[in-house]
């Protein structure tokens, strides 16, 4: 995938190809397109990527501190609170929505009831997930409910018999 000599540059090349090109950028581009929003990725312009490839690997990662070079290069330009902030994902608050929006919770409950009948997932697990865990920790368990709901909807959409 990359002929870079350093491990960090080979890993960055893999990340660029798999995580960005094949995953993140596709999602962002498609969602922005659907919303009628133009999106640009200036840090992925060819000149910028070529410049980053010339940065010595030792400057790209300092211990376990990710984005060290980037943050140091922008210190004094961006506010300190931006430089110091922790990375967080772009996940949807599906668990919160499941708890606070009855129609979505009903849709999820119906999908999981059908999935339960397929005996792919233990009924006791589904019951505890919906009755106990989701209300107690919606941010964590909402993702599991969403995944199981999507599994059932995928099975239905593709008419898979199990």
Give a short synopsis of this structure.
The chain is mostly helical and 162 residues long. It has two domains: 7-84, no CATH class; 94-157, no CATH class. The chain has helices at residues 7-35, 46-54, 57-60, 68-74, 80-84, 94-100, 102-118, 123-136, 138-157.
Task: Outline the structure in words.
The protein is an all-alpha fold and 162 residues long. 69% of the residues lie in helices and 0% in strands. It has two domains: 7-84, no CATH class; 94-157, no CATH class. Helix 6 packs across helix 9 and helix 8 crosses helix 9 (138-157). The longest helix is centred in the N-terminal third of the chain and has 29 residues, at 7-35. The radius of gyration is 22 Å and the shape is elongated. The protein starts with 6 loop residues before the first helix and ends in a 5-residue tail after the last helix.
Write the layout of secondary structure elements.
Elements: H1 7-35, H2 46-54, H3 57-60, H4 68-74, H5 80-84, H6 94-100, H7 102-118, H8 123-136, H9 138-157
Comma- or semicolon-separated keywords:
mainly alpha, 69% helix, 2 domains, 162 residues, 0% strand, elongated
Report strand %. under 5%
Biggest β-sheet: count, sense, barrel? none
Cα gyration radius (Å) = 22 Å
The computed structural class is: mainly alpha
Write the H/E string, N to C: HHHHHHHHH
Number of helices: 9
> Count the strands?
0
Describe the global form. elongated
Instruction: Give the CA-CA distance, first to last residue.
Output: 38 Å
Calculate the mean pLDDT score and round it. Answer: 88
Q: Specify the helix fraction band.
A: 55-70%
Poorly predicted sequence stretches spanning 5 or more consecutive residues:
none
Task: Count the domains.
Answer: 2
């Amino acid at each position: 995938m990359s002929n870079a000599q350093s491990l960090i540059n080979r890993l960055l090349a893999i990340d660029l190809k798999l995580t960005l090109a094949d995953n993140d950028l596709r999602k962002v581009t498609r969602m922005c397109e659907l919303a009628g929003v133009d999106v640009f990725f200036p840090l992925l312009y060819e000149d910028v990527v070529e410049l980053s490839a010339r940065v010595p690997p030792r400057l790209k990662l300092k211990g376990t501190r990710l984005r060290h070079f980037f943050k140091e290069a922008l210190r004094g330009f961006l506010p300190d609170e931006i430089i110091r902030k922790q990375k967080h994902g772009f996940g949807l608050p599906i668990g919160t929505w499941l708890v606070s929006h009855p129609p979505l919770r009903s849709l999820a409950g119906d999908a999981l009831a059908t999935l339960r009948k397929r005996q792919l997932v233990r009924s006791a697990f589904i019951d505890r997930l919906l009755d106990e865990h989701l209300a107690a920790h919606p941010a964590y368990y909402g993702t599991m409910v969403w995944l199981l709901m999507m599994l059932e909807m995928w099975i239905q959409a593709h008419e898979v018999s199990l």
